[in-house]
Amino acid sequence: MDTKTANNLATAKTEIKGVTDALDGRLDTAESDIDSLEGRMTAAEGNISTNAGAISENAEGIAANTAAIAQEVTDRGNAITALETAYKAADKTLTDSINGVDGKADQNASDIEAIVAQLTWGSF
To answer: What distance in Å separates the CA atoms of residue 36 and residue 85, rounded to the nearest whole number?
Structure first.
């Protein structure tokens, strides 16, 4: 092999080595990036699992609270109905008592008027 060919081969070999080294560097960087992404993916999957558990727990809590609120609304509605019934009964009792007193007052007024009339007519 002549010198020129040997020099060309040496130059080509050096260029190929440079390209190969550059590719190796890029592959190393890509592998490192992939490893980093795998770590981040694993962390994200763990977070997803944790969040799914929290969502499930919250859904159960929401269901329990919804049932408790519905029961509270029913209980308060029943209490309001009972209170309204008691108020109506008390109002009727009070109205009946007032009417009874009014009736007695009217009767007493009539009796007094009759007595006054008798006394007035009886005096003359």
So the answer is: 72
Name the residue type at position 46.
G
CB proximity list for 9: less than 8 A, separation 6 or greater = 1
C-alpha–C-alpha distance, residues 4 and 10, integer Å: 10
Alpha-carbon span 78 to 108, nearest angstrom: 45
Structure confidence by residue, pLDDT tens digits, 103-124: 999 999 999 998 888 887 755 5
pTM of the model: 0.48
Q: For every residue of the chain, which 3-state class applies, written as one string? A: CCHHHHHHHHHHHHHHHHHHHHHHHHHHHHHHHHHHHHHHHHHHHHHHHHHHHHHHHHHHHHHHHHHHHHHHHHHHHHHHHHHHHHHHHHHHHHHHHHHHHHHHHHHHHHHHHHHHHHHHHHHC
Q: Return d(Cα 124, Cα 121) in angstroms, integer.
A: 6
Domain ranges in the chain are 1-88
